[in-house]
């Protein structure tokens, strides 16, 4: 089982193309906070600068990708001065083209930037993007790579739109997120306890894979340790360092994520939902669910469906 694919799928992470910027000279464009959605920008040609409140402007080069996992308020502009002057009430003149792109700044067009955002299923507490720092700047490599290849594909699709271009762009945006995560993890060891650390530790990854593959099994730390060929103390120690919790706590939270989705999205009985995540009685399941979600499963089902 591919853990990252599993968690991204269950947590419902999906990319949506937002703005396609066609930028000229001396321009600035302000983005309101998109929380809880993540924001991403890919510079398919030209250069731009990114500004975040309280931080120095950051120059973006052709092929660069920036990801803001918490969707914080930010500015894109033609230079450091343009970024500093741009705010919620100081947009530079811009207009929408016939293709839906945003044209901003004096002619000629010097930069093309794809802006996207990523939503997730609020019913799931296990989130990949929440494990990331507030800003990821992935620089284009002179040698090229998968991330650069995808940015180039985006650039070609934007430059020459064809039938179903919108579908191609949204699929590529999803691919871009996975490649950004791969590249960031390859160059940035995870030092703080979080879910992404699971992918960087062989023992914890092997244990988590078993838990995800069969969450309804009556797992104990001892059984799990034997399955992956380590001692119980080693497994418990590594799990705590990497995730900040015990294997049992991790499993319970994942079970409740699966149960929450099933409660909201199906008419299955509480007994069926309980058995699907490893509980032999509705009472034990309800108690565990209430402890983690602060409301009983029946009440959660009613509220979640009304919100949806």
TrEMBL record:
Would you say which domain of life the source belongs to? Bacteria
**Boundaries of each HTH araC/xylS-type domain copy?**
205-303
One GO term in the molecular function aspect is: DNA-binding transcription factor activity
The record's keywords, sorted A to Z, are: Activator, Cytoplasm, DNA-binding, Transcription, Transcription regulation
Name by which UniProt lists this protein: AraC family transcriptional regulator
